[in-house]
Design a protein that fits this description.
heterodimer; A: about 130 residues; mainly beta; OB fold (Dihydrolipoamide Acetyltransferase, E2P); 2 domains; 3-stranded antiparallel beta sheet; 8 strands; globular; B: alpha/beta; Peroxisomal Thiolase, Chain A, domain 1; 14 helices; about 40% helix; binds zinc ion
Chain lengths: ~130, ~375
């Protein structure tokens, strides 16, 4: 994976920066140039809340090569407290303990290892809130 | 707009076809369609293909396919909308004729998926999802549809048995299709003991990796009448998009692009779902057929799984779905799939479906639903006996 591609996303992945529409209040993650709700083009920078609820999940058994060292692993979609939805891995628990509706928190982790170049990529994962 | 008809169809046998290249697959299907239509030339060609660049390193398909089809200087374009590329190729051909730009158009689709490792194919297909916000995190296509499945099960009580029933039904239909990649029946037990890919989806919930080509000839209804063969009218065409990332959509248990594309197609046709006799839908995974048939308005939300269990969508049911075997049994060469769906409609409407899978109800109107990625784009077409 090319370094510029990772660098370009760093404000989202490392700092959880999102945009809040200054007209209708819609929070978009990642940044967009135009609000998908009202068409307004100005946003203020906000930081995503770090807690939310898991809406759905799946345990990936057949994994792409960048993730084979982690398989089986879970991915899920969570809705954060401000209504923003994200997809990420669900880590730090037995995959069998994952339930729809469980409280999760966002933590910074190694996400994948590019098998061709060995580049480590970091970003956010969900972990159970009790952890 | 001019009235448009399908006058010829042709496809290759779907499967893992080592002896045939990308161009072989396309040209074989195209020649079969041209022969079936009995036309002596075409004015334009559309080529649906998702990602020949990632699968075999070949782009510029308009030129390559026109050349190998022996059509010097033919006007042609390649269109892409992930797994809906074939449906988009059909729609592009439809608008080309309806608008008066061309009289006879070949709409083809192709994908050569087995010249690459399994991991390479996973990578190529994942390009239809959001690279930075889905694929980066380890989401795979089975994984994304599994997220829909779990949400659907949670909200409506959809069961493992209902998912299995989709696979069993489609394999039963596909066992009668000589063009199918996997023309054999499977049992519920086989589905439920097959290898887990992304829970709750097992390998027998998933459509396969496939090589294949499919093509149809479209023309005006006036020209079709002069050709003197039975023709099938294209009475509705709808296309819609949705957020590419599944998590960016409001409802994980509905496919909104499918709903909107169907509304557009029904409006054009002046029909409702009640007027339609059968459908070919995009069952890339078993859960997809359930969610799609609800999004089309065929069943109330949460009711499709039960309908499949009761046999309502089987060959003898009140609304047969995927008489061809669907993507599950027939195979899913992604760029060809949308065109192959049209071919099954034409065969059923002509009364020519092979090996006993012909509907006995004398169907008059059929529809297709072909979608890209996890539902980020969808084509719906409605065809009627001429
Ligand atoms: Zn706004």
């Amino acid at each position: 994976m090319f370094p510029s591609r990772i660098w370009r996303e760093s404000k989202h992945r490392y700092r959880l920066e999102a945009g809040k529409c200054t007209k209708c209040g819609k929070v978009v993650f990642p940044y967009r140039l135009i609000c998908p709700v009202c068409g307004h083009r100005e946003f203020e920078k906000v930081i995503l809340p770090e807690t939310g609820k898991l809406l759905t999940y799946s345990i990936i058994r057949v994994a792409p090569s960048q993730f084979t060292d982690q398989a089986p692993y879970a991915i899920g979609i969570a809705e954060l407290e401000n209504g923003v939805r994200l997809l990420a891995q669900v880590a730090d628990c037995e995959v069998d303990d994952i339930k729809v509706g469980m409280d999760v928190r966002i933590e910074f982790r190694r996400v994948q290892t590019d098998s061709h170049h060995g580049v480590l990529s970091y970003g956010y994962k969900f972990v159970p809130k009790w952890y | 707009m001019r009235d448009v008809a399908v006058v010829g169809v042709g496809m290759t046998k779907f499967g893992e076809v080592w002896e045939k290249s990308l161009r072989d697959l396309f040209v074989e299907a195209a020649l079969a369609a041209i022969d079936d239509a009995g036309v002596d030339h075409v004015d334009y060609m559309t080529v649906g293909c998702m990602t020949s660049g990632l699968f075999v390193g070949q782009e510029h398909l308009a030129s390559l396919m026109a050349d190998y089809l022996g059509q010097k200087h033919l006007g042609a374009c390649r269109v892409e909308s992930a797994c809906a590329s074939g449906g988009l190729a059909f729609r592009t051909a439809f608008t080309e004729i309806a608008s008066g730009m061309s009289d006879i158009v070949l709409a083809g689709g192709v994908e050569k998926m087995t010249d690459i490792s399994g991991d390479g194919a996973t990578y190529a297909l994942a390009a239809a999802a959001d690279q930075e916000y889905e694929v980066f995190h380890g989401a795979t296509f089975p994984g994304l549809y599994a997220l829909m499945a779990v949400a659907h099960m949670e909200k409506y009580g959809t069961t493992r048995e209902m998912l299995s029933a989709v696979s069993v039904k489609n394999h039963n239909n596909g066992s009668m299709n000589p063009y199918a990649q996997y023309p054999f029946k499977v049992t519920r037990e086989q589905v439920e003991s097959s290898v887990m890919v992304a829970s709750p989806l097992r390998i027998l919930d998933c459509s396969p990796i496939t090589d294949g080509g499919a093509a149809v000839i479209l023309t005006t209804v006036d020209i079709a009448k002069k050709l003197g063969k039975p023709f099938i009218r294209v009475i509705g065409s709808g296309v819609a998009t949705d957020a590419i990332a599944l998590h960016s959509r409001d409802d994980l248990t509905t496919l909104k692009a499918t709903k909107v594309a169907a509304e557009k197609a029904f409006k054009m046709a002046g029909k409702t779902i009640k007027d339609v006799d059968f459908a070919e839908v995009h069952d890339c995974f078993t859960i997809a057929e359930i969610v799609v048939s609800e999004s089309l308005g065929l069943f109330e939300p949460g009711k499709a799984g039960e309908a499949v269990l009761k046999g309502e969508t089987g060959l003898d049911g009140s609304f047969p779905i995927n008489t061809s075997g669907g993507l599950k049994s027939k195979g899913h060469p992604v760029g060809a799939t949308g065109v192959a769906q049209i071919i099954e409609l034409v065969k059923q409407l002509r009364g020519e479906a092979e090996n006993g899978r012909q509907l006995k109800t004398d169907p008059r109107i059929g529809m297709t639903q072909n979608m890209g990625g996890s539902g980020g784009s969808t084509l719906v077409h409605i065809l009627e006996v001429g």
